[in-house]
Amino acid sequence: MTMKKINAFEQGEAILKTLSKGAFLTTAADGKQNTMTIGWGSLGFKWGQPTFTVMVRQSRYTKELIDANPEFTVSFPVKEGFAQALGLCGSKSGRDLDKFAAAGLTTKAGETVSVPVIKGCGLHLECKIVEHYTMAEDKFDKELCEKWYANKDWHTCYTGIITAAYVEE
C-alpha cells in the first residue's frame, strides 16, 4: 500500500460526506491505542494552517488517551466494507476490549504523529493538537443542549493542525 499526499481541502467533499456516515478517530498514549467512531468534525483553516476539529465526550476512553498524547488521526472509510467495524467502534469502549482486534482492523504507523491510521480506509488525516476546550452549558444553545447533552456529558473539542493528509493507492 502506497500513500499519496493530498491537499485536505481538495478532498473536503469526500471528508465531509464520509464523516456523516462515520470515520475512525484514533488515539494512542503510554503503549495503548484506541479508535472510536465519529460522525461530527470540522475541516477548517486557522492560524494560517489547515486544521481538523474532533469532539470527544468526557466519559470516553479516547479522551484519556488524547489528553495524555496531543495527537490524533482520522481515517475516513471512503471504501466499502467498514460498516460493522464502525458500528462496533461506536458502541464499545476501548477500556473493555481491543477494538482493533474485535473489529478486524489493521493499523499502519502514522507518518508525522505517533498515532496509527487504519489501513484500507482510503483517506487519512494526521493531526497535532494546538487548541482544546470543553463546551459549557452557559455558552450553548438551550434547544441543542436539551437534545444532545441532557446528561451533561459535554464534549471536549480538539483542534489539530493537519500535519499529513494522504490517500491510499
UniProtKB/TrEMBL annotation:
GO function terms (MF aspect): FMN binding; oxidoreductase activity, acting on the CH-NH group of donors, NAD or NADP as acceptor
InterPro entries: Flavin_Rdtase-like_dom (IPR002563), Flavoredoxin (IPR052174), Split_barrel_FMN-bd (IPR012349)
Domain Flavin reductase like span(s) in chain numbering: 23-167
Family from the record: Belongs to the flavoredoxin family.
Name of the molecule in the record: Flavin reductase like domain-containing protein
